[in-house]
Every structure is written in structure tokens, then in C-alpha cells.
Amino acid sequence: MTDDYEVVIEDIGIVDVTIDVTKNELIEILNKKLSQSWTTGEHEDGFDIPVEPEWENVLKEDGSILYEYTKLGWKVLHMQQTKQDGSVRRQWLSFKNPKYKRGK
Length: 104
Prior knowledge:
It is a single chain. By secondary structure, this protein is an alpha+beta fold. It has a domain at 23-37 and 46-96. 28% of the residues lie in helices and 20% in strands. The protein has helices at 23-37, 56-61, 64-71, and strands spanning 47-50, 75-82, 88-96. It has a three-stranded antiparallel β-sheet with strand order 1-3-2, covered by helices on one side. The radius of gyration is 21 Å and the shape is elongated. It starts with 22 loop residues before the first helix and ends in an 8-residue tail after the last strand. 4% of the residues are buried.
């Protein structure tokens, strides 16, 4: 005697898997974003790039990425805005134009 079973597969939702970028991939991404978005007069005193989830680990583990930009003359900061519970609301990389001179 064979028992028949009904199998029901329900949608369990999309599993969010974040794959971290490498140091070289992140540098390539940042260079592309800076070169595509930087125009004279636009963002003349600075430019912010939102940090993507897949960048977080490499930024935490390797500070030399941002240091390399400072050696080229950029003023670069990894900024975070937190909620009252201490969790990160948003984070971004702030690039200040090395040639910008604040007006009088």
C-alpha cells in the first residue's frame, strides 16, 4: 500500500545575501562615481557617496583605502548617522574637493 502525500511549497520570501566587494573593486567603484559626478560648480565644496552594505566590511577592515585618497589631496571621511538606540541610520563617504577655496 502506498500513501500519497501532498507537498506544499510556500513563498518564504527573498533572502537578502550581501556579497562583500574587494578593496580593488571598491576603489574602482569610488573612482567611477567621483569621475562621473564631479563637475565644475556642482558639489564644489564636497561630494557625498552613500555607503552600500557590501562596502561596509572592507571599509572597516582596511583604512588604507581612504588614506590613499588623502595622499592624493582629497579630504575624505567615513561618516555615520545613528539612531538613538545606537544602530546606524545611514553612512556615507564625504569627499572634499582639494582645490576648493572658500569664498570671502
